[in-house]
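Posted in: Structural Biology > Protein-Ligand Complexes

Title: Requesting predicted complex, adenosine-5'-triphosphate in pocket

I'd be grateful if someone could produce the 3D structure tokens for the following input. Sequence and ligand are given below.
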Amino acid sequence: MIELLNVRKNIGRKEILKGVNLTVEKKEVMVIVGPSGSGKSTLLRCVNRLTEITSGDIRINKVSIKDLDPISLRRIVGMVFQSPVMFEGSVRENITYGLRFSENDINTWETAEELAREVGIEHLLEEDANKLSGGEQQRVAIARTLALKPEILLLDEPTASLDPESAKKIENLVLNLVRSRELTVLWVTHDAEQAKRVGDRVAVLKDGRIVAIEEPKKIVWGEIYVR
Ligand SMILES: Nc1ncnc2c1ncn2[C@@H]1O[C@H](COP(=O)(O)OP(=O)(O)OP(=O)(O)O)[C@@H](O)[C@H]1O
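-- Reply #1 --
Done. Output follows.
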């Protein structure tokens, strides 16, 4: 479903990704781990063209992302970040934010209710989104992403800014959504225990190169965060 073929990414004179090859199967959760600065976020950002690759190719369902316009691409590929960004307004407005650009005739009222229920914030729909807790805001961000019915989800440390209890709840929520919506996932985390819980496979990125792709139980975890 997602193929990275010899992907290189330079920023200025620095080579951040040095020929990354990675295939993610449909409905697979591929976790990406690696030391700070190894290029994990950059890799995710390349997949939905928040940043352009320097060479190589990225294909989604066999189509090069260069041949998809960024808007169509971002309908297929949703992204959730470490720190959720709330727009001014209610939770309802935040959840349906992306739907205003939709070509289809969608009942945004009902859609917001359904999505809010799905992520457990139906009681907060009319609240000011900026006044919610971090965990609640992450639920809003997830609902807003799901509103566009993506097939692929990019998760850039979605639980890293939360307290352990909220983090576990969001992790479970995301896993349930991934299964119920049959999503294909690239999930960046620095938490080895989380990687073991959520990953079908784990890709280890070191200094811009993938050095291992294995099932979690086969990964030598002790060596990953050593530079
Ligand atoms: N816009 C940019 N300009 C210059 N350098 C950048 C830019 N974005 C990323 N980098 C550099 O690219 C390298 C990889 O960054 P990236 O954020 O992808 O790493 P990461 O593995 O996600 O790190 P972390 O785990 O700390 O989030 C780092 O050395 C970073 O400083």
